[in-house]
Amino acid sequence: MTDAPAPKPGILDIAPYVGGKSSIAGVAEPMKLSSNENMLGAGEKARAAYEAAIKNIHIYPDGRATKLRDAAAEIHGLEPERLIFGNGSDEVFALLNQTYLTAGDNIVCGQYGFLAYRISALGCEAEVKLAPEPNYKAEVDALLAQVDDRTRIVYVSNPSNPTGSYNTAEEIRRLHAALPASVILVVDEAYAEYVTEADWETAFPLAKDAQNIVVTRTFSKIHGLGGLRVGFGYAPVKVAEAIDRIRLPFNVSVPGVEAATAALADEAHQTASRELVSNWKPRLTQALRGFGLEVLPSAGNFVLVMFDGPERAAAANEYLNTKGIIVRPVGGYGLPQALRITIGTEDQNRAVIDALSEFAAT
């Protein structure tokens, strides 16, 4: 007996999510390249819509996010009634887990899959089964080998954070075809707009006629709205209807709906954001490899840099901090020997190259 309330079993065993840090002591304006944000920021149309929304922030938002729902459906060619909106795509994952997982069930994801999948699953007293990724990529057969009669959801990041790897359209089709009809396949496409690889395809068409696929997108990356927390999932109608029974009634804010709707129509900003990454990712990769560093191929707006062990990675991180540069250590993903670096502006990328050139020489 205790005299204080106790959380249910397992909660205190969950390691909390820790985001990329945003400050360095003594540095007024550090270069924050730790969270895969859009370094161009939000587009002009989204900012204008956000400012215009101020006059209505005393009013509860439309619980169905109808304006944004219709815009996203039109842009992507989807049925509006099948969209689930949330406080970032993180909330969509949490809602899926809360709706479909009971104690003793499990989810399956790749060894280096996004931590948000696991945290909310563990909070539902479910098991997390990790498929090995020896080549830093989710492998279809390895994922399938983890599926059993208590598996309810399989998560695939495509492209994957933090490794930058991706699965081809054929691999996603093969994975779905081999799953039991009772298992939901969640394809997390947070970085979809940055992908240029010819054998990658969005899973929207595959999901259109399936009863057990959910495809998620976010406004935090290409659209530069990370601070507003808006994401959505494209799901079978029965899944969307089930989730609506437990979804908080006003989970996307008035400014979030307005800014996200405007961002969808801002093709110029999306193009500029893609071009920044497509121009600088190969240049940054080539430069760092020239210093003897291993840089994994990436389909996202970031690169994962491998060092000769955890101590060397920690030293590199500390050295970058002395130059006012914040990147992301990824020991929480089981990669203590690596640093993830967001593709920044030209000045930011050149600063990273200069700093790591100096560090590699030590």
Automatic annotation (TrEMBL):
Record pathway: Amino-acid biosynthesis; L-histidine biosynthesis; L-histidine from 5-phospho-alpha-D-ribose 1-diphosphate: step 7/9
UniProt keyword terms in alphabetical order: Amino-acid biosynthesis, Aminotransferase, Histidine biosynthesis, Pyridoxal phosphate, Transferase
N6-(pyridoxal phosphate)lysine: residues carrying this PTM: 221
Top enzyme class: transferase
EC assignment: 2.6.1.9
GO BP term, pick one: L-histidine biosynthetic process
SUPFAM superfamilies the record matches: PLP-dependent transferases
Required cofactor(s): pyridoxal 5'-phosphate
Subunit comment: Homodimer.
Sequence similarity: Belongs to the class-II pyridoxal-phosphate-dependent aminotransferase family. Histidinol-phosphate aminotransferase subfamily.
Name used for this protein in its record: Histidinol-phosphate aminotransferase
Organism: Brevundimonas intermedia
